[in-house]
Amino acid sequence: MATSFSPSNSVTVTTADKFIPDIWSDEIVAAYKKNLVLANLVMKMNFKGKKGDTVHIPAPTRGTANAKVATDAVTLIAATESEVTISINKHYEYSRLIEDIVEAQALNSMRNFYTSDAGYALARQVDTDLVQLGRSANGGTAGAAAYAAAYIGGDGTTAYVAANNNESALTDASIRRTIQRLDDNDTPMDNRFFLIPPSSRNTLMGLARYTEQAFVGNGNAIRTGEIGNLYGIPVFTSSNADTTSGSGAARVCLMGHKDAMVLVEQVGIRSQVQYKQEYLATLFTSDTLYGVAALRNAATVGAAKSSAMFALAVPA
Hints:
The protein is α/β, with parallel strands linked by helices. It is about 25% helix and about 25% strand. Strands 5-12-9-6-8-7 form a six-stranded mixed beta sheet, sandwiched between helices. Strands 1-10-11-4 form a four-stranded mixed beta sheet. It has a two-stranded antiparallel sheet with strand order 2-3.
């Protein structure tokens, strides 16, 4: 006997709601953006939908003005321009295989945790790559630690020595000296930032100079990690601030300009859900594809430090 067939038995967006990833994607993107700190402070380039694995950014040399001598020809500026290349080679993912029995019995809060956790994990990875990029930006050598070319936080003039771990708590003098280094390198006054670990936030709260700057919360501490403004520079705290190696590890503060580094996103945060019948489970994956590089890395001061980024070693 023939079985009746009715369109009312079709799989609809209502009956297949559990397998439609739009909500997952929205929640993950929201969590990702909420947890980004340094990535929101440096230059960001959108490379989405474009082919290729390398981005080339021209890095022209600044010219100088020449006096015009009467009856003489103008002085031509001869310069061979260089470029900065960014390899898009960082592909990170976050995946969970959720069995049907869990899907049937677990509370909706389980999904909320996974989406939030995925956003946090990917955001932390992006920030880590940028924070550790500050190592080569300050040291001048790829893979060299920022603290290898950092100054100690106490006076801002003494070089940090990994062998004896001579870090020191932030002082007003060290902050002002670091600002001067940026000024000496003709780093623009706007779009600067100061990224510090929690230990240095604790120190800043006890500095009279800091509290005198009308330090008032405005909600940004929750949304972006910004905790105030010091000498015209926004201050951000991050538990992801770099850490020195070895025993008695110190932390690293980074003061820099937006153009010190660049983040190129080829594939932004995306989420995909696929039902795996062989496992009677749903595979949930969120991933991103990007590249990072130092932009202003001119050897103008000290040990080939970045002209737009300086580090201070402070206690953990």
